[in-house]
């Protein structure tokens, strides 16, 4: 639970914090659309550089953003490898033949043993895995002791390489953009901003105010519910539920022993909360005034223009065929 | 020795990521049998954290808690040198809200849930449940009812029966009488006292009710901001000068006796522990 | 201020929770509804503000008969502090929570800011305005609930077992606010089984199995041992001692007077 970075607000004071949440959401959308419209590798790389400048000027730690990327690591690597190995357009830039021989395989197996026993001590586990993976490929292509059972060829084409890089950069940009938003915007402000941005949807009868109320109450009660879940775990543990052990049937029982109290308590809670809200004159759907009001500053206009300029530039470039 | 805290420190991480000291250098011996201890202190003083160390739900950051011969330390738990489940069977902990533990379809099933987890055969556990439902002051017809259709007081009793069914050597109850009406509270306290006197089991009670402390406890512990500030006789506790600093109220009986002797000049041979005691003394003074 | 006439209520047909309740509460009065767990006392508070619909009978608040059309006007006049401090804290911060009712009443923002400051100060929570609920004690949360209700300009506050989940310090604090508010003219209805809280009120109504067992001046109800015991309640200690002395045939007028005085708040 402690490593969730997406969606966590970290207090700060740079211009990104002072911006109106509406601006941030709109600019975020504009930039994301731009990232999807861009088609060339050089442009997307330029975009990432621009984003880096924003991070530096906005005094946001790059480490935090990288942490935000972590949950997507698997997706990144998957798309990257997929493009590299299966996209066969363009020129052949690299080729190698892997020879499977007893000696080569033996060395590789030894290497993986070594990985298995050392992997817990290395901080960058995924990177370590990749290094070992590439090393074993290299070993197979270079050494062949004894009879060769079979061979396979790896071919990398220029477009595959380009596309792999391109898709990866685009993903990084999109995730970084949304991390910047959640990192610099208080949940309550984010909620207000979302409500304002979603207002046009009222025309198609989506009740944005109720949605905002639901989000704000969820924000209020998430810590309470987590705390409660923890207490239930302890209460059942003191009745001998050992969450680290047990067969499948016992595991099922353990989960039931947590979920049932959790549901019962949550229902009771929401029932009481509904009464309390009604008693304080809350009527769903009736207009309310707001304590928190968003203020639009010149900076927001600048940011919005910046977003619009980027988007229109990207559109123009795309039309002229970049 | 039942439970022994030695230089225990424990801090928890708050929602803001900050560390808060919940237990500070606790040294505390608790007997395996025959004790009736009340644990008092303001909300947030560390009472619940303290009792959760007694059945190894929490493990000290530094120091050790020895529970019925098993020494629980952070290191021992991390290296899995000790098993925690047997400790939880021997030291039964009843949580403040019965809603945290009740989940089965019937009261019977809920009561036997604990013993079954500890490997007690189902038939044996059921026989125990039939016995225990009466111990907590309900009749056997409750066994087939759903625990969710009971009143607050009844749920509490069922949750206590569920812990008693594990046949613990030591019984700990976290605010068992909060929210109950006077009659319900007195009945439940009588139950605890009976378990204590007939089975000679050690009972530890967290409470905010000073009358309970005064009437039933043989020993009182006072916690304040993570520190154990008092460990001793409950009568002596309330004759101390600084108990107001600890935000403790004077028990009604003591307050009344003090009022009578200061207003009317009555001389009492000793401080009354029970109402009956006070009445007998008043009788002697008036006659 | 509040007139309840022949009020009955049931959750399931055939199982009445409240039966033929008649009760009238005057402006500025402090009335306690005493009853054991399950006596129907909390249901009564929900009926008064229209959170539940009576089976028969009527509720009139300040001249308005409770109905679909008047329910919102009545909720502006009557506020409830509920039992569980956590389940009535709607806002993400103290400030937001006090604002919640005001936002619902469409109070203009400037006015809202002023009222939040004023009533946070009244319950001593000014320095906590930006705090989140998990950083507050139960007593502090209940104080915020009181501020939220006061800010809405209510005339009546119902304390529905509002102190039962608090520690002694929190309880003392909330009871002190009850006294202060009552002195300032707020009509107060406390629902409790705590005799020490009941002592403070002008009048006590004992509720048992959905019916009113007794409705009288506080001193008289507090001394009525039979009625209290019938409803799972107990006399306060000094009065218990007083009764016991009488039963043993012991006479000591000074002691009796002292016992009587010490169990009364007046």
Q: What are the SSEs and their pairings?
A:
The complex is a heterotrimer of chains A (322), B (287) and C (266).
Chain A: H1 15-18, H2 21-37, H3 41-57, H4 62-69, H5 73-86, E1 92-100, H6 102-118, H7 125-142, E2 150-157, H8 158-184, H9 187-198, H10 208-237, H11 248-279, H12 298-319
Antiparallel strand pairs in A: 1-2
Helix pairs in contact in A: 2-8, 2-9, 2-12, 3-8, 4-8, 5-8, 6-7, 9-10, 10-11
Chain B: E1 3-13, E2 19-30, E3 36-40, H1 47-54, E4 62-67, E5 70-72, H2 74-78, H3 85-90, E6 91-94, H4 107-117, H5 122-135, H6 152-164, E7 170-174, H7 182-199, E8 202-206, H8 210-216, E9 219-224, E10 227-232, H9 234-239, H10 252-264, H11 275-286
Parallel strand pairs in B: 3-8, 3-9, 6-7, 7-8
Antiparallel strand pairs in B: 1-2, 1-4, 4-5, 9-10
Helix pairs in contact in B: 4-5, 4-6, 5-6
Chain C: E1 2-12, E2 15-25, E3 30-34, H1 41-48, E4 56-61, E5 64-65, H2 71-77, E6 78-81, H3 94-104, H4 109-122, H5 138-150, E7 156-160, H6 168-183, E8 187-192, H7 195-198, E9 203-208, E10 211-217, H8 218-222, H9 225-230, H10 237-247, H11 253-262
Parallel strand pairs in C: 3-8, 3-9, 6-7, 7-8
Antiparallel strand pairs in C: 1-2, 1-4, 4-5, 9-10
Helix pairs in contact in C: 3-4, 3-5, 4-5, 5-6, 10-11
């Amino acid at each position: 639970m402690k490593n969730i970075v997406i969606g966590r607000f970290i207090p700060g004071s740079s211009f990104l914090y002072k911006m109106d949440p509406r601006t941030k959401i709109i600019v975020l959308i504009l930039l994301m659309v731009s990232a999807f419209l861009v088609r060339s590798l050089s442009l997307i790389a330029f975009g990432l550089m621009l984003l880096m400048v924003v991070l530096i000027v906005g005094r946001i730690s790059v480490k935090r953003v990288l942490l935000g990327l972590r949950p997507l690591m698997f997706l990144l690597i998957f798309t990257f490898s997929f493009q590299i190995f299966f996209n066969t357009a363009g020129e052949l830039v690299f080729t190698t033949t892997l020879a499977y021989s007893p000696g080569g395989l033996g060395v590789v197996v030894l290497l993986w043993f070594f990985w298995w026993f050392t992997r817990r001590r290395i901080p960058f586990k995924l990177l370590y895995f990749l290094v070992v993976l590439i090393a074993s490929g290299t070993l197979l292509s270079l050494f062949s002791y004894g009879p060769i059972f079979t061979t396979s060829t790896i071919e990398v084409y220029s477009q595959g390489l380009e596309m792999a890089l391109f898709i990866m950069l685009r993903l990084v940009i999109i995730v970084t953009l949304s991390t910047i938003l959640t990192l610099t915007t208080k949940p309550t402000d984010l909620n207000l901003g979302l409500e304002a941005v979603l207002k046009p949807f009222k025309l198609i009868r989506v009740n944005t105010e109720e949605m905002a109320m639901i989000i704000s109450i969820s924000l209020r009660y998430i810590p309470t519910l987590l705390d409660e879940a923890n207490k239930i775990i302890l209460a059942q543990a003191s009745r001998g539920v050992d969450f680290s052990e047990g067969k499948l049937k016992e595991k099922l029982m353990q989960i039931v022993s947590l979920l049932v109290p959790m549901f019962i308590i949550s229902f009771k809670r929401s029932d009481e909360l509904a009464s309390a809200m009604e008693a304080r004159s809350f009527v769903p759907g009736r207009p309310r005034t707001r304590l928190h009001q968003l203020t639009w500053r010149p900076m927001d206009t600048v940011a919005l223009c910046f977003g619009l300029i980027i988007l229109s530039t990207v559109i123009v470039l795309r039309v002229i065929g970049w | 020795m039942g439970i022994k805290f030695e230089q225990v420190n424990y801090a928890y991480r708050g929602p803001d990521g900050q560390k808060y000291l919940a237990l500070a250098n606790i040294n505390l011996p608790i007997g395996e049998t025959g004790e009736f201890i009340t644990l008092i202190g303001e909300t947030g003083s560390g009472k619940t954290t303290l009792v959760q160390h007694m059945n190894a739900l929490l493990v000290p950051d530094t120091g050790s808690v020895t529970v019925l011969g098993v020494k629980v330390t952070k290191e021992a738990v991390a290296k899995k040198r000790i098993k925690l489940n047997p400790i939880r069977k021997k030291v039964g902990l009843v949580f403040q809200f019965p809603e945290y533990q009740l989940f089965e379809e019937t009261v019977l099933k809920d009561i036997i849930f604990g013993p079954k987890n500890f490997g007690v055969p189902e038939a044996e556990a059921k026989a125990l449940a039939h016995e225990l439902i009466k111990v907590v002051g309900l009749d056997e017809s409750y066994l087939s009812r759903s625990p969710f259709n009971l009143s607050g007081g009844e749920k509490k009793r069922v949750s206590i029966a569920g812990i008693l069914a594990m046949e613990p050597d030591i019984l700990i109850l976290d605010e068992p009488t909060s929210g109950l009406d006077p009659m319900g509270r007195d009945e439940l306290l009588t139950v605890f006292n009976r378990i204590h006197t007939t089975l000679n089991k050690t009972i530890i009670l967290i409470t905010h009710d000073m009358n309970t402390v005064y009437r039933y406890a043989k020993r009182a512990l006072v916690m304040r901001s993570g520190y154990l500030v008092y460990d001793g006789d409950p009568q002596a506790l309330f004759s101390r000068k600084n108990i107001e600093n600890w935000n403790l109220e004077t028990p009604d009986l003591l307050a009344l006796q003090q009022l009578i002797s200061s207003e009317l000049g009555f001389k009492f041979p000793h401080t009354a522990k029970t109402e009956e005691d006070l009445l007998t003394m008043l009788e002697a003074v008036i006659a | 201020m509040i007139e309840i006439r022949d009020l009955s209520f049931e959750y399931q047909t055939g199982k009445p929770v409240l039966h033929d309740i008649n009760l009238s509460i005057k402006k500025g009065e402090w009335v306690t509804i005493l009853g054991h767990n399950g006596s129907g006392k909390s249901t009564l508070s929900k009926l008064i503000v229209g959170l539940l619909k009576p089976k028969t009978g009527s509720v009139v608040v300040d001249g308005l008969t409770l109905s679909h059309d008047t329910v919102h006007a009545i909720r502006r006049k009557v506020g409830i502090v509920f039992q569980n401090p956590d389940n009535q804290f709607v806002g993400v911060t103290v400030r937001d929570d006090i604002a919640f009712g005001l936002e619902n009443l469409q109070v203009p923002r400037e006015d809202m800011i002023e009222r939040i400051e004023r009533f946070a100060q009244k319950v001593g929570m000014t320095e906590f305005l930006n705090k989140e609920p998990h950083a507050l004690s139960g007593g502090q949360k209940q104080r915020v609930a009181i501020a939220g209700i006061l800010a809405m300009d209510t005339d009546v506050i119902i304390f529905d077992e509002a102190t039962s989940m608090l520690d002694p310090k929190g309880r003392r604090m909330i009871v002190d606010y009850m006294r202060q508010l009552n002195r300032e003219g707020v009509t107060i209805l406390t629902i409790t089984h705590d005799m020490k809280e009941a002592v403070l009120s002008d009048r006590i109504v004992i509720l048992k199995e959905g019916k009113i067992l007794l409705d009288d001046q506080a001193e008289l109800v507090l001394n009525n041992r039979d009625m209290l015991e019938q409803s799972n309640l107990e006399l306060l200690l000094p009065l218990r001692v007083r009764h016991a002395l009488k039963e043993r045939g012991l006479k000591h007028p000074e002691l009796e007077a002292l016992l009587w005085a010490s169990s009364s708040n007046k």
